[in-house]
Amino acid sequence: MRLFILAAFLFFSATAQCQQAAFETGNSLRQKLYAKSNIANGIAYGYILGVHDSWSGIMICTQIGADPSQMILIVRKFLSDHPEKLHYSAMSLVADALREAFPCPHSEK
Q1: CATH fold for domain 23-107
Q2: Hey, which of 42, 44, 56, 100 would disulfide with 32, CB 3.0 to 4.6 Å?
Q3: How far, in Å, CA of 38 to CA of 20, rounded?
């Protein structure tokens, strides 16, 4: 039994460390968005579009004619307008920014 508990403890502590290392924050996303490196910009753009695609039709309903560059500008402005939230997860911030700009009719209050 002790061996099982030790193995479980080691597994979960290793998993927690891996999750922390992969955690993208608003701060790190903003740095990539404003970096001079095309690679960093591309990573940020891909991240934003990935969040969009994950929530599209569920909580983000992009209008016809909206394009990826518009979404990038929306997220940049949201991050600039809310520096107090930059320590939050990038996914939640991107989702909030895009949901605010492109709300779904069924999710409006």
Answers
A1: 10k-s Protein, Hypothetical Protein A; Chain A (1.10.890)
A2: 44
A3: 25
